[in-house]
Design goal:
heterodimer; A: 328 residues; two-stranded antiparallel ribbon; 4 strands; B: two-stranded antiparallel sheet
């Protein structure tokens, strides 16, 4: 009996330690940034960082839920792109009332998420192949629609969600991000659906045995991921006031990095949205630092790639050590 | 049963589709079923066949390599630099192969020895390797013009498809390794039952590492031929290649879960992708539409193939 309880305590301590480690990493990065650049700690730059992080966090919430339940949604960058393209096209070219355009984009994101979920759960293609494959087709269609052009300069009412300020002070991307994170946390922690998603990811067979419709849960998780990718796309284009066919390409690696930095387990069943938020802040601070230090853009993906590998390596090492302590 | 009839039995649907497509395309253009066009098709599909063979090994073993396109790109950049530095041809080939093997070996270390999920390790490597190739080339292609090197991928006198011959030889090597070496045997064993193989005395960690390194080796050789054929090393040429390679393996009958497959079957998958690509030009599909259509067809055919192969015995 003592063995189990001490095992639980060690696990809890390790989780706490990992959480502190993430905060520590973020704090160190902030100190380094402040020392390296005068403007880093300016209010303007900080607001910039959090606003930039918001898009990654919105995507990251969907990604975290997908990975907890089954596996990565590597199509998120492409879904973001095509939904942004469709929404802006409706607003700008067809003059459709902007809430309808936003709803249409969300519906498209959910549809693409459904396709991913269907391929994974019903056909049985692993998510890192099905979503990776869907990505190329979707980017292809975004390219067909835009034909290499850029759509820019949208109506202020449409831009409010990315460019506006709530009560004149809080940037709207941060507001949307906070709503998404709170909603996601509530769903994962306080609802039956949330528990079932964790259960499906931790052990799909056991979840099915205990009466969970595992295929339906996987499809739901990917629909959610698709919807959030669409939302992130709308916020992003409303903020930067332009859209082109490869706008989402730069988001795939950073989002995956943020999720794993947040301690989500690659094999499913374990992960928190708070972790993803911290992970996204770390990634954004790193990106911001590279901008301020004028690091050549060619190295940006490389740095993120190395960060992904290092983070997961550290996580694996910690898990192994934990297992050894528990066994002793 | 002979090897060929086994292939026939494994992938009938895809082969029939290919035959149908060739007939349809030859109606659209009188030049489609000409020797010259078939030679061009061979040249275009050759390198993909090598990369797909690499992907097939990894998938049979139960793994995944999303960095193959990036490995090909980096190996190609080093190859071009070696050519332009005046290396003799055998040394140039060795450079490409070594760079590819080194990248694959890093993947293998991360996956087999450190225990990372394949998709994470190879996705991270993809980012790193494209960064390296972009930095080394300053974001521009490196042209090569050494005649004796370019010969390796040339369509000599418009009749001798050297890229196809070079890649054919590399492919035969892959088939040999699959059928006649320990590496080949353990690839199937690990894919079929990794724990069981380990318990029966197979050094699974080492062999898993070796599979990724070998995939990198094949990809590096493929990169040499690609640079010779295109006469340029482009810093992002490999984007999406890993996906087409995975698709070719799946279409060729390689199973995603149970360590079953055959490098030879992958030929059929590569043929399908190459035929579709050429056919879109023949039926004059505008080039803007091609990525969307090819992407859609490939993902649909994967869905179809996996659906067929699991609707019978394997399901659950």
């Amino acid at each position: 009996m003592t063995k189990t309880s001490s095992g639980v305590r060690i696990r809890a301590d390790a989780a706490l330690l990992a959480g502190l480690g993430r905060f520590g990493a973020l704090a160190i990065l902030i100190v380094v940034g402040a020392l390296a650049s005068d403007v880093f700690l300016s209010g303007r730059n900080i607001s910039n960082i959090v606003t930039n992080a918001s898009v990654i966090i919105i995507l990251g919430v969907g990604q975290t839920i997908a990975i907890i339940t089954n596996g990565p949604d590597l199509s998120a960058g492409s879904v973001l792109t095509i939904c942004a393209v469709i929404a802006t096209l409706m607003v700008k070219q067809l003059g459709i009332f902007f809430p309808i355009a936003i709803l249409a984009a969300l519906a498209l994101g959910m549809f693409l998420g459904f396709l991913n979920g269907y391929m994974i759960a019903r056909i049985g293609i692993p998510s890192f192949i099905s979503t990776y494959g869907l990505q190329w087709a979707v980017f292809g269609f975004a390219y067909v629609i835009l034909k290499g052009y850029v759509i820019y300069d949208f109506d202020t009412s449409f831009r409010f969600i990315g460019n506006g300020y709530l009560f004149g002070t809080i940037p709207m991307p941060i507001v949307v991000m906070l709503l998404v994170v709170t909603g996601g946390m509530f769903m994962l922690r306080r609802t039956v659906v949330g528990r079932e998603l964790y259960a499906v990811g931790a052990n799909r067979v056991a979840a099915r045995m205990s009466g969970v419709d595992t295929e339906k849960k996987i499809i739901q998780a990917f629909i959610l991921s698709g919807a959030l990718a669409a939302l992130a796309g709308i916020v992003l284009v409303a903020r930067i006031n332009a859209v082109q066919a490869d706008i989402g390409k730069n988001y795939v690696l950073p989002v995956i990095a943020a999720v794993f930095m947040g301690g989500t387990s690659p094999t499913g069943g374990r992960g928190t949205l708070l972790g993803t938020v911290i992970g996204a802040l770390i990634i954004t601070v790193v990106q911001n630092g590279m901008n301020l230090l004028a690091v050549d853009s060619v190295w940006r993906d490389a740095v993120i790639g190395v960060l992904i590998i290092l983070t997961v390596l550290i996580d694996i090492t910690m898990q192994k050590r934990l297992a050894r302590i528990q066994a002793a | 049963m002979s090897g060929f009839s086994r292939i026939l039995k494994n992938v009938p649907a895809v082969l029939w589709v290919e035959l149908l497509l060739v007939i349809v395309f030859s109606f659209f253009s009188r030049n489609y079923l000409t020797t010259r066009n078939l030679l061009i098709l061979l040249q275009q599909g050759a390198v993909l066949l090598v990369i797909s063979a690499a992907a097939t090994f990894v998938i049979i073993s139960g793994g995944l390599d999303l960095s193959l396109g990036a490995i090909m790109t980096v190996a190609g950049v080093f190859t071009a630099l070696a050519v332009n530095a005046g290396f003799p041809i055998p040394a140039v080939i060795a450079v490409g192969a070594l760079v590819g093997t080194a990248c694959g070996a890093v993947n293998g270390l991360l996956i087999s020895f450190a225990g990372m999920e394949p998709f994470i390790a190879t996705l991270g490597m993809q980012g790193l390797l494209y960064g390296i190739s972009l930095a080394m080339t300053n974001k521009e292609g490196i042209p090569v013009s050494n005649e004796r090197f370019v010969f390796l991928g040339d369509l000599v006198n418009r009749t001798v498809p050297m890229a196809a011959i070079s890649c054919g030889l590399i492919f035969l090597l892959a088939v040999f390794v699959q059928n006649h070496t320990l590496l080949g045997r353990y690839t199937f064993a690990i894919g079929g039952n990794e724990e069981g193989s380990r318990l029966s005395g197979v050094e699974t960690r080492f062999w898993k590492w070796a599979i990724y390194a070998f995939a990198g080796f094949l990809t590096g050789l493929g990169a040499v031929v690609l640079v010779a054929r295109l006469e340029v090393a482009d810093p992002i040429v490999g984007v999406q290649w890993e996906f087409e390679a995975i698709a070719a393996a799946i279409l060729g009958g390689t199973s995603l879960r149970i360590g079953r497959g055959d490098v030879r079957g992958t030929i059929v998958g590569v043929m399908l992708i190459t035929i579709i690509r050429s056919g879109l030009n023949v039926v004059r599909v505008p080039s803007v539409w091609q990525p969307a259509i090819i992407g859609t067809i490939i993902i649909l055919s994967i869905v179809f193939q996996v659906w067929i192969s699991t609707s019978g015995k394997e399901r659950k």
